[in-house]
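Below is how a single chain appears once it has passed through the pipeline. First comes the sequence as given, then the structure the pipeline wrote out for it. We keep one example in the README because the format questions we get most often are answered faster by looking than by reading.
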Amino acid sequence: MVHIMSDRTAAQKERLQTVEREMEIPPLGLRGTLSVPASAHSLVVFVHGSGSSRLSPRNVAVAEELNRHAIATLLFDLLTSAEEADRSNVFNIPLLARRLVDVIRWTEKNPALAPLPLGLFGASTGAAAALVGAATEPRRVRAIVSRGGRPDLAGAALEEVMAPTLLIVGGADYGVIELNEGAFQRLKCPKALQIVPGATHLFEEPGAMQLVTDHAARWFEKHLSTRETKG
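Resulting structure:
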């Protein structure tokens, strides 16, 4: 049974009939925030990018929107406090992917989460880790969304991804657009590339993040629905 552990959004969580739990995920005790709306039909695990954490305001905003669509969310820190002190770790895609795989496998052992179809939402370097994790766990991962990501850093794993993948990139995020286009060509799974007009890397422009959340919600609802996963 999941219990509300935080008071900071208690009124909002009650209105949305969502319960939130702050937790430590084994085996390393990685810190995470699990939010489960009433009648949740799926689960999305967030993989943050370099220099960020489970408290990323942009990822939190996307997670809250997904909760409104009856999608449970898990935001977690990929590194321990000691590891965060070494800046090179935030660009260590194999390390980040291994941590994600540990979390994916943990969800399979959790009786409340195991039945939920699983999606991944990756941002920046976290998008590469999400793609590598999906290639490693193809049976478990059913959908992926990348926000302003670096999917190119997933390397050879791009060709091995089976889950439907949506790449979202800002129309003014020059350089990153081209990297996403190159990665998009290498993906062999069902895929889409969505460019948000006028948006830069952090999608700080008015309305840009709302477009990101709308695209992500539609993608996950399409590919993580009960009918889709049973078909």
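The chain has one domain: 21-230.

See the next section for the split statistics.
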